Fold each of these.
Amino acid sequence: MFAKKLFRNRKGIVGVEAAIVLIAFLIIAAALSYVVINMGFYTTQKTKETMQTGLDESLTALQLDGVVTARTDETYGRILYVLVPVKLSAGRGAVDLGSSSVVVSVYLPNATLMNIYQGARVTNDTTWGELVSTLNLMEDTYKVAKFAIYNDNGNNNTVLESNEKAFLVIKLGSETYEMLGEYETIKIEVRTAKGAALTVVRTAPGGLGKDSFVDLG
């Protein structure tokens, strides 16, 4: 009789021990589940950020906003100046056009002008002479690229915003092979701090005259 009672008490102890072990397993499983779910959320967020970063880097911060024009020199009738109108690409934030964050390179049939960018100026000039003077592109200055920013918000800085427009003015070299002749192709690459480079490729038409403006399309 005593043995049976002792055996029943022993079964109760075993049951309590099994319940404790089961509860411990449940707590451990819950903790592991939380870690797995948290890692899943973290991985998803990182994947989203990586994809967004890749997308941002694949899109250009600047886009063309009009016709690319040029002006020939007074001696040879070859293209010496190129004007590229740009604005911010849709959905992109403001872009600093300061000289430390922009690289402009020009590729000609017989010459390459690497990193000739020298900064930006805010202006309201309406004539070619005023613009050249403001950007300090005098007769003895060559192989230079500068931005002229219009419709400034009153900030008077080199940051291009959504409602502003800018003209990239490029003055090519002084040698004939550093200018653009008839039916020759020019490639302009503008790289900002973020996003892909803006690439502009144009071919000069025939019949270039001296000291005249040319529509490059």
Amino acid sequence: MKILNLISGPRNLSTALMYAFAQRNDTRVIDEPFYAYYLRHAIVNVAHPGKSDILNALPQSKESVIRLIASIHTKNVFVKGMAHHILENEPTFLLPWTNIILIRHPEKLLASFSKVIERPSITDIGIKKASEIFQFLKLHGQAPLVIDSDELLKNPSQYLKKMCAYLELPFSEDMLDWEKGGIKEDGVWAPHWYKNVHNSTGFAVQKSSNQKMPVHLQPVLDEALTYYKILKNNILTND
């Protein structure tokens, strides 16, 4: 079994990518399995919509989450996760997995994220943690694939073909579209976060992509850009 582990920040097209992999007949997807573990063990300074439902729906220990993922019997498992849900400084459990880091320009991320959580910190958006995970995996000879949502949207078919080639998977045209309304693997938090993807049938630039980032988030953006640039230098391009 190959575990394809997507490490993302919020509002990065990670759900759309999960939907794409859910269309494959050789892959099962699992939505943010470390979310309850994060809420239970991290210092979380912002209110997460549906917190009690999340804590009830998912295992709250790291070991239980890893066992859950390992219990899925299929050729490939696609794990959609948030970077900041991984709390360890040295997440050695990631080393046997095939890791993919998804990034988006943090100004766009913050503009979108602030519509649900008004005052996110650098920790809440995951880019710092994603950079740290990249460095950790690279140090251990397991540098992850780094992909960019803007690159993906240039030409989704071409980019997914390049991703699949890198991951040593056959490309499937089925990955390019899905039915409106969600998938059965959606987390219980979907009503709070997944409106755009539930209204979509494939990869597309959202009308909200050009919305302005609130001025009060400028200090968070300034810090985020440092980590974003580290990862940006390593992305798979869509030329």
